[in-house]
Amino acid sequence: MDELRPAILSPDHAGLARAASLLQRGELVAFPTETVYGLGADARSGRAVARIFAAKDRPSFNPLIVHVTDRKAAERHVRWNDTADRLATAFWPGPLTLVLPLKDGHGIASLVTAGLDTLAIRVPAHPAAQQLLRAFDGPLAAPSANPSGRISPTSAAHVLAGLDGRIAAILDDGPCAVGLESTIVGLSSDDPVLLRPGGLAVEQIEAVLGQPLLRRSEVSPLNAPGQISSHYAPAASVRLNAQMARPGELVLGFGPVVCDLNLSPTGDLAEAAANLFSHLHQLDARGQPIAVSPIPGHGLGAAINDRLSRAAACRDIV
Ligand code: AMP
Ligand code: MG
Fold it and tell me: DSSP E strands: which ranges in the chain?
């Protein structure tokens, strides 16, 4: 990772054009939204999204929220439904994130959803965020622009204090108005579920829906797997730190090893992160146990190993 100071850009024509071209090249740009400053990357590029996790030092790959310009742009990526329509009409643009099933040809990198078949998506209201999305002309994955475990940034100075040397640029448009994360509503099964309280009051959402939102605790994972599950679990058993394949196993490799699919033949952890979920899905589809080569624990390797050990563990409790 280079140690360059991030460019501090104004939300004028030149600043927005520069920010958009950095994003198009797969770089990270922090930008203001009405909730908090987001750390944006091209949501279609696994390599760009891997940089988000590296910059934040996130110990785990959690699914990220994708930001788009409007409902039409959202409909390119997710299967839309009537409830989404009512909520989007009432609250977009604004601090409401909807979780909906991914549609065929969605184009979103699997690292964004951490391998899930649903996508969290929202339309930010902040003018600079809107202008950046239009200049970039694509979906931006953007968690809060702070190192993992630190509080969310509501000014460019907060972003700089946390991420100096780790990101290409900060689009500075002063403090954020809401200062709270977006409210997240799951719409991928019959009844809408409150997945995270946030900047939009639950009562306002319920008034539009004419029904109460279910709480996470009220939803059985069996009835609504894509709705509340927070991580992708392969059906196959997963064995970690495998030096050699046992009979019948498929090998998910790392580095110069003989294997069925390789996360990164050159041992590049960012490439491995970008490939992790799509490779797991591909091997899982073949219906055999999966053995995974040892992966170093430093940098992005910590998050890769975290996800793999959850994949290995969850089989035992199913
Ligand atoms: P943040 O790090 O602030 O962007 O938070 C993203 C939030 O969205 C986390 O709480 C995630 O668990 C949640 N989230 C993102 N994608 C999904 C999804 N597909 N299903 C359920 N929750 C999601
Ligand atoms: Mg955060």
Answer: 7-9, 29-31, 38-42, 65-67, 96-101, 118-122, 140-141, 169-171, 183-186, 193-196, 214-215, 238-239, 250-253, 261-262, 290-292
Query: Using an 8 Å Cβ cutoff, are 157 and 174 in contact?
Result: no
- Per-residue pLDDT reduced to its tens digit, 155-189: 999 999 999 999 999 999 999 887 788 999 999 98
157: number of Cβ within 10 Å = 13
Whether residue 143 has its Cβ less than 6 Å from ligand 1: yes
Atom of ligand 1 nearest to the CA of 188: 20
Ligand nearest to the CA of 143: 1
pLDDT in tens, 249-299: 999 999 999 999 999 999 999 999 999 988 998 999 999 999 999 999 998
Among 78, 152, 196, which residue has the most ligand 1 atoms within 8 Å of its CB, making it the best to mutate? Answer: 196
Q: How many CA atoms lie within 13 A of 29 on its CB side?
A: 31
The ligand that comes nearest to the alpha carbon of residue 197 is: 1
